[in-house]
Amino acid sequence: MEYKIDNNFHDTRLDKFIRRKYEGLNLTGIFKMIRKGKIKVNGKKVKQNYRLQEGDLVKVFNATGGETKKKEFVDLSPKEVEYIKNGIVYEDEKILVFNKEADMVMHKGSGHEYGLSEMLKSHLQVEEFTFINRIDKATSGMIIGAKSLPVTRELSEEMRERNIEKKYYILVDGVVSKDEFEIRSYLKKTETKVVELDEYEPGAKESLSYFKVIKRGRKNTLLEGTLGTGRTHQLRVHLSNLGHPISGDAKYGKRADHSMCLFSHWVNIGKYGIKLNLEVPEEFLRVMK
Q: Largest Cα–Cα distance in the chain?
């Protein structure tokens, strides 16, 4: 088989490219094929960590049974197509930002045949589309997607370097007294949830969150939260242990007759000059009343 490298795989390691094209081959087998010259680039033997360049010609000899089958897009119902169209907050040739509803799953699995990621792949007819950040199933608001592998790599690096800013509207139980405050602690995953620790212990990670009050009600408070670190369930655990769990958070707070009131409302992707802001959800205001 021959593969001419396009912009999607520019600067991708050879072994990762082969792994994507041949899911039936394990890395040990791929390394062996490269070492024995059964995989060549531009007619020459190269190392497995060779970074492919646009225009390179990759030849794979005698790789039978392992080639990845072309994936089919899921069939979307008219209702799902309408949901996707209404949820797109921003779109250009590289990036798509989507406003996810609470309780919508991001990806297939855990009893779900497909999730939002598969729906958008189908809507765009782009297999390479992927979200570069994740939010909990119960969380709503903006999530960032990339339409190609180079943009995925670029945005993922921006995310790791914390160059992409996100803010959340959060409705919590009780009246918060301080106008602005921060919470710094250690978080550690257990089998069922995330626990907060005052001191480090093996497996724990330092966490930092910033909060400011937007509006106070009689029985609850609307906050804006910003992540200083990006730990699992960070905002939920910090606020719960403060004594002000997020309204509707059945895992760390109280059961309620409404979805969890945690909404990703503000995104700033400085590298691309994209800054987006959404209003407080009507559901939050209804719960406050």
A: 73
Q: What is the mean pLDDT of the chain?
A: 91
Q: pLDDT tens-digit profile of 123-174?
A: 999 988 999 988 888 999 999 999 998 899 899 999 989 899 999 999 999 9
CA distance 178 to 162: 27
Pick the CATH number of 2-60 from 2.160.10.10, 3.10.290.10, 3.90.420.10, 3.40.50.1820: 3.10.290.10
Cα(138)–Cα(248) distance, rounded to whole angstroms? Answer: 9
CATH class, domain 164-288, is alpha beta
The catalytically annotated residue of 6, 136, 198, 249 is 136
Distance from chain centroid for Cα 24: 26
Q: Known catalytic residue: 136? A: yes
CA torsion 7-108-283-162 (nearest 10°) is: -40
Counting Cα atoms < 13 Å in the Cβ hemisphere of 218 gives: 2
